[in-house]
Amino acid sequence: QVQLVESGGGLVQAGGSLRLSCAASGRDFGTYAMAWFRQNPGKEREFVASISWSGVRTYYADSVKGRFTISRDNSKNTLYLQMNSLKPEDMAVYYCAMRRAQWAVPISTQSEYDYWGQGTQVTVSS
User: Fold this and answer.
1) CA 90 to chain centre
2) Are 105 and 113 in contact (CB under 8 A)?
3) 20-58 as b/e: b if 16+ CB within 10 A
4) How far is CA 31 from CA 6, 71, 111, in A?
5) Each residue's pLDDT tens digit, 64-112
6) H or E element at residue 9
7) Which entry of 25, 72, 88, 112 is 20 to 30 Å from 35 by CA?
8) Which residues contact 91 (CB under 8 A, 6 or more apart)?
9) Closest by alpha carbon to 33, among 72, 4, 5, 7?
């Protein structure tokens, strides 16, 4: 069974930075597309960023372009999200997700992702 565990969330002032990590189980991490989503209470979960199995292709929501960077280290079965210039509207629980189909494109639609972590809280003070 695939397990995803996020970490790195916390409290940061507006304009600050945080680096989120997602540790994945299994030996085939390098064959799956991965993504980050986020959600606040009462709001729909939204796409943040995604990355192809190789790490060559990355995609970002317009709201985070130029500020966030998604990356992965397949040798460590780990996904990352570097968040810079954080804004209050970035406050949310951040989830990492995996597409079960090997070699699949990192589509931004959350229903296409099969495995989810428990989430890590990011709080931005102003």
Assistant:
1) 13
2) no
3) bbbbbeeeebeebbbbbbbeeeeeeeebbbbbbbeeeee
4) 19, 14, 19
5) 999 999 999 999 999 999 999 999 999 999 999 999 888 888 889 999 9
6) none
7) 88
8) 40, 122, 123, 124
9) 72
Per DSSP, the residues of 41-53 read TTS--EEEEEE-T
List phi, psi (to 5°) of 29: -55, -40
* Distance, CA of 8 to CA of 117 (rounded, Å): 13
